[in-house]
Amino acid sequence: MFVRKTLIDRLREESLSLAVLIVLLIIPFLGIRGYWLDILIRINVFLVFAITLDFFSGTTFYLNLGHSFIIGLAAYTLAILNVYYGIPVEIGIFISTIITCILSLVLFLPSIRVRGVYFAIMSLLFPIIFIGIATTQPFSIFLGGEGGLRSKQLFLSIAKSLPVKYRLMFLQLSYYYLSLIIAIVSYIMLYKLAYSDFGFILRAIGQDEELAEVSGINTVKAKLKGFLISSFFASLAGSFYAAIKPPVTLDFVSTATILLPILTAMIVGGMGSIIGTAIATYALIILYELLWGIVGEWRTIIYMVLLLVFVILRPQGVMYYLYLKFKDITKRLMRA
User: Fold this and answer.
1) d(CA 256, CA 254)
2) Least C-beta-crowded within 10 Å: which of 53, 151, 260, 335?
3) 3-state class of 149 per DSSP?
4) Helix (H) and strand (E) counts for the chain?
5) Does 240 score more than 60 pLDDT?
6) So what's the pLDDT on residue 287?
């Protein structure tokens, strides 16, 4: 017999998520400011980068190594709109998101039809080609070359109208809560989609695309739809990150600074889990920063060794495994 869950039952099931959300909301009031608040802002943005990659690549197993290109394209589009057309970054964030979605879909359309490792190779070419174009004249003059484009910073005009001692605090708090809103909305939307009927279609493609086609699934249409959803949220986060971290340089497109951290979070978190990737983003970036105070210059080596240990111990994703175990424990404690 089906029994509708009460509000209390639902709150119990989501108690862990609610507790995390409350902590994230009150963090600035716990005395965390300056450097560590900047780190949390970056984590919120990279969380969106990671779960958008996980939503498409983690379900379909179409490894999009051009994800950093989409993020960088959104950043450069925002900078161009502001520098050359005078569009305020507050408005440019939304315009650049739409433009990037359209351009990325057009550019990646031929790649979507290619299967397996060939898609990964083709997608990797996009950031490489973009960096080559951006550093070659006459395009380097327009795109700022290695120095990048310095667009105006988000809310800077408002901050300048405030007393000097409140300016940095205003910007940090604004960026933190905006990044948190973007991260929460993106997470909820992508999580719901990943475990909806559409999400299971994407997973079916990842398991056996030929069988999915025989079953009547239009795999090309499903992949395009999944790619567009992933690109939208990645573009939004990329535009926002560019607005708070000018100038826009080639680091926004670089596979080393953008792709590797989010790809690592997806693998350690658990491909296709969304929540495991989100947890891994927070855990890995905070761990990397903490290691500096413990081992100093050795932190990169120690960090890489720890990543290897995580992958060896749990190839399917250690963070998602730990999350399920912890959730099971909390349920048992609540019933006791």
Assistant:
1) 5
2) 335
3) strand
4) 16, 0
5) yes
6) 95
Query: Residue 61: in which H helix or E strand, if any?
Result: none
Phi, psi of 312 (to 5 degrees): -70, -40
Q: How far apart are the first and last CA of the chain?
A: 25
> How does DSSP classify residue 307?
H
Q: Does 1 have pLDDT greater than 50?
A: no
Average pLDDT over residues 56-78: 96
The whole-angstrom separation of Cα 58 and Cα 272 is 4
| Residue 69 CA: distances (Å) to CA of 40, 76, 123 | 23, 10, 9
- Under the banding of pLDDT at 50, 70 and 90, the label for residue 2 is very low
CA dist., res. 83 & res. 96, Å (int): 13
Q: Say if residues 105 and 290 touch (Cβ distance below 8 Å).
A: no
**Rama region for 291: left / alpha / beta (φ>0; ψ in -120 to 50; rest):** alpha
Picking from 229, 199, 204, the residue whose alpha carbon sits closest to that of residue 216 is 204
- Angle in degrees, 0-180, between the axes of helices 35-60 and 219-244, rounded to the nearest 10: 170
DSSP code of residue 256: I
The token duo for 184 is 């929460």
Q: Which residues pair with 248 in a beta bridge?
A: 149
Q: Kindly report the number of other CB atoms within 10 A of residue 36's CB atom.
A: 13
Structure tokens given for 22: 């409350």
Q: How is residue 211 written in tokens?
A: 């069988």
